[in-house]
Amino acid sequence: MTSLSSPSSKLFSFFVLLALMTSFLAGRAQQNEARIREFQLSSCLGTAPAMPAYYNDVIKIGCDTVWLMNKTRYQLMTKAMDYVLKKDPDESLKLVSQYEQSLKSCTENYGLLMDKYALMSDELSKGNHASIAYMQDVNLNLEKAKLALAQANKNLEDTQKTLARKSKNTRLKNWLFGAGGLGTGLLLGIVFFGGS
Fold first, then answer.
1. What is the chain's pLDDT, residue by residue, as a tens digit (196 residues)?
2. The dihedral formed by the CA atoms of 70, 76, 78 and 82, expressed in degrees to the nearest 10
3. pTM of the full predicted structure?
4. Domain extents for the chain?
5. Would you say 49 and 73 are in contact if contact means Cβ atoms under 8 Å apart?
């Protein structure tokens, strides 16, 4: 007979412990296989009891809203509800009324914001259209100014050509008049002084 302190006994105890832990964990793993939990419309009513869901569960929600809470939070919520209902039953109605007023206020604020957005959007659209019309008018005036400037440049070039031609003609006439005056003066000088 071997004592419990012998090495073979310790090894045997270790394997027994390992086998027990493995079977326990295997059982837990089978227990934690994915299950499908469905929250149907009947589960969404205010009187429906809480439905527990566990690790690896797949949750299909058929309601518009579902609150998922862990066990601690759920217990805290139920204790708070019990406290409120025991302390003053009308307190829950007051809380619901305050919530509805808050929701109504939020809805009204949302409506006001949407109205302001629509007004600002309309004003911005009008401003954009006015700016576009103004820019088109400015572009049209710039085109007219470019055409007027091009015409003024053409007229200036024509005037310069005309002045250059007139200046040339004037110089030619002056030279001819000067040459004619010199020729006349020479002839008169020859006639008066050359015949003596």
1. 444 455 555 544 555 555 555 555 544 444 556 788 777 777 676 666 777 777 788 878 777 777 777 777 777 777 777 777 777 667 667 777 787 888 888 889 999 999 999 999 999 999 999 999 999 999 999 999 999 999 999 999 999 998 888 888 888 888 888 888 888 888 877 878 776 5
2. 180
3. 0.33
4. 16-68
5. no
End-to-end CA distance of the chain: 185
Q: CA separation (Å) from 169 to 156, 159, 184?
A: 20, 15, 22
Residues in contact with 162: Cβ distance below 8 Å, sequence separation at least 6, in sequence order: none
Which one, of 50, 45, 49, 79, lies nearest residue 65 by Cα?
Answer: 45
Q: What tokens appear for 11 in the block?
A: 């090894």
